[in-house]
Specification:
Elements lengths: L4 H6 L1 E2 L6 E2 L5 E2 L5 E6 L11 E8 L2 E6 L7 E3 L1 H14 L3
Antiparallel strand pairs: 1-4, 2-3, 4-5, 5-6, 6-7
Length: 94
C-alpha cells in the first residue's frame, strides 16, 4: 500500500484490517474508521513521533485526539476537513 508524502513526515501507521490472532481463538478486529499517527507534541516535548494522534471518522465528522486521552478533541466538519486536506496537499506539494 502506497501512502503520500504526508505519511513519511508524520509517521503514518496504517491500520491492518486483516484479522489477527488475539487472546484465545477470537480474531482482533480493526476499525477502518480509525487511524493512529505518530506525531510530536511541541507543548509537552518528548521524543519525535512519541505522541499518538488518534484520527477517527464518525459519520460526517473527523475527530483528532492528540495524546489519545480525550483531553482536547478537535472535531472537523466536512468543510473544515476539506480545507485541512487542501492545505496539507498544498504545503506538501501534493
Amino acid at each position: 500500500m502506497r501512502h503520500g508524502p504526508l505519511a513519511a513526515i508524520v509517521g503514518f501507521r496504517p491500520v491492518n484490517n486483516a484479522d489477527q490472532s488475539g487472546a484465545g481463538d477470537k480474531p482482533v478486529r480493526r476499525d477502518p474508521n480509525r487511524r493512529v499517527i505518530d506525531a510530536t507534541c511541541s507543548m509537552h516535548g518528548g521524543a519525535h513521533g512519541f505522541t499518538p494522534l488518534v484520527c477517527t471518522k464518525r459519520d460526517d465528522l473527523i475527530e483528532l485526539n492528540p495524546h489519545a486521552t480525550n483531553g482536547c478533541v478537535i472535531v472537523l466538519h466536512e468543510k473544515a476537513a476539506t480545507e485541512l486536506f487542501d492545505a496539507l496537499g498544498e504545503w506538501l506539494g501534493g
